[in-house]
Amino acid sequence: MNAVSLGPLVLAADRFAVVLAIFVFLIVTGIMARKVDDRFNAWSWWAFLGGIIGARLGHVLINMESFVADPLRIFAVWQGGFYWPTGAAAVIVSLLVMLPTGRQRLWAALPLALSLIVWNTTWQLTGGTDPLAVPDQVFETLEGNGYRLEERKGTPQVVNLWATWCPPCRREMPMMADIAASTDDVTFVFANQGEGRTAIQRYLAASGLSLDTILVDQFSDLSRFYSAPGLPATLFIDADGVLQHAHLGEISREVLVEKIENLRTSISPSGDTRP
């Protein structure tokens, strides 16, 4: 699983690339404010905030139906969900309004281009997903039965690595349970990491959640196998049992639905997985 550790902070590779690009943008514009024109300092912050807000609002508008039932989730930016064309439009507007001369706008192209290069290079170096096949291992379910992910080949699987002590795991669990209950062609597996039956049963009773397949992975074998540096982690496994995508951290409803749809499109109408 591709992630970057900064001390105790663990970021998914795609988010790290964005953070690094923003850092470069602010540093370069700060230097330009001292050396070229002090108006670059104010513009950089307006461009940064406008880009983030614009990208988030674009995502919300595109997925409005998903946000109507829970409008406060609009502010849950840690879940991800940004539409970059509207973010880029907001940056361009800030440039046109705050930097009126052609010389200023030409200079503004420098930090924008550098941040784009840094983002793309970082993502190319740290992003991507290793196409691991599911482990040939028997796991124990909450009911005490044996369960092998390998035996579920032929049907795409979403495997959620979680723990009852993990706040983002608890936040996303009701949403994931809701989608799992309404999805017939994809198997959902909730693999608890490092806890015993008593802790899991106590959490389920208190939360009122009903989950079909819960694995008791007391030694966190799945986390080690997929190199998950933290929880929650959601694994999207195709019908051949091969990992297609791994999402580290709390996942939004929109991203979960999108990745499930990607798993569906990897299956041809005849039932064979597409290359």
From TrEMBL:
Transmembrane spans: 16-33, 45-62, 82-99, 106-125
Record-annotated Thioredoxin domain positions: 128-265
InterPro entries: Lgt, Redoxin, Thioredoxin-like_sf, Thioredoxin_CS, Thioredoxin_domain, Thioredoxin_ResA/DsbE_sf
Keyword field: Cytochrome c-type biogenesis, Membrane, Redox-active center, Transmembrane, Transmembrane helix
Pfam family for this entry, one: LGT
Compartment list: Cell envelope
Main location: other
This protein's name: Redoxin family protein
